[in-house]
Amino acid sequence: MAQDLQPGSIIIPDWHQCAESKDFFSRILYKKKRKQFGLLESPAMAPQAAVDTVQYKVFLSGKNGVGKTSLAARLAGLRIPSMHYETTGIETIVLYWPVKLRESGRVLFFRLQLWDCGENALRRFDHLLPSCKEQVDAVLFLFSFTDRTSFDDLPNQIARWSGPSDRVVKMVVGTKFDLFMHSDVTQREVRQFQETQGLPVLCTGGEVSDGLGDVANFLNGLAERLWHQDCMAATLDRRPTQCREGALI
Ligand SMILES: Nc1nc2c(ncn2[C@@H]2O[C@H](COP(=O)(O)OP(=O)(O)OP(=O)(O)O)[C@@H](O)[C@H]2O)c(=O)[nH]1
Ligand SMILES: [Mg+2]
């Protein structure tokens, strides 16, 4: 579902650069850096400008060392760990991202809870994967451009998540794109993979800057697919209500 979505068809992609979005993005920033939100915290808007929030659970899948913890940190605006410390269980990070829907002009806050589980822990403890899968809305399959085996392992990772009635957004993320000089995977192979699997592939890498530009493309793309998936599900269920009514908080 939602795999052939045109970027920008649902969400205005460069909205974070428009003056009118300033008030919304200022709620997720503090001293020009991303604000960190606890599980029970949310961006505070003035009552007259109350904005609906939609929440989603996103799981990061991939071999150990591909950069799951680093991607979660990058998306939340945290520093990327310079060393590899294996994640020994499940770690979650909450982030907020405001978007403007193209058709209705409605503004929404996306609340994304990123679930990051160390691959070794996932193999060792059978109960972890079912928890990660429970009510998940999206899964990001990571591979590293500097680790060929992580790219070759993608079909296995994806197969773990196939099901006849799954309503899960699936995207592939190539990490360590900044180390292209040492790349074990060619762009051509990535394009071929994208065509055969029919999944979108995003590439990330490098230092995290303070700006929003680094992650805007990624988060808008993810939000767009999540929203589209909900709209499709609402249509299939013949629910006459608006998308994600149940998830508005
Ligand atoms: N240059 C570069 N290094 C990265 C990038 N992403 C991650 N790394 C490095 O890769 C190493 C492993 O990253 P992690 O995010 O800890 O890997 P992980 O997938 O969480 O690993 P497990 O928790 O063991 O499953 C760290 O030393 C990071 O600094 C990137 O985009 N560019
Ligand atoms: Mg980790």
From TrEMBL:
Main localization category: cytoplasm
Name of one Pfam family that matches: Ras
PROSITE patterns for this protein: RAB (PS51419)
UniProtKB keywords: Cell projection, Cilium, Cilium biogenesis/degradation, Cytoplasm, Cytoskeleton, Exocytosis, GTP-binding, Nucleotide-binding, Protein transport, Transport
SUPFAM superfamilies: P-loop containing nucleoside triphosphate hydrolases (SSF52540)
UniProt signal peptide: none
Subcellular location: Cytoplasm, Cytoskeleton, Cilium basal body
Keyword NAD: no
GO molecular function: GTP binding; GTPase activity
Protein family according to the UniProt entry: Belongs to the small GTPase superfamily. Rab family.
Protein name: Ciliogenesis and planar polarity effector 2
Phylogenetic placement of the source organism: Eukaryota, Metazoa, Chordata, Craniata, Vertebrata
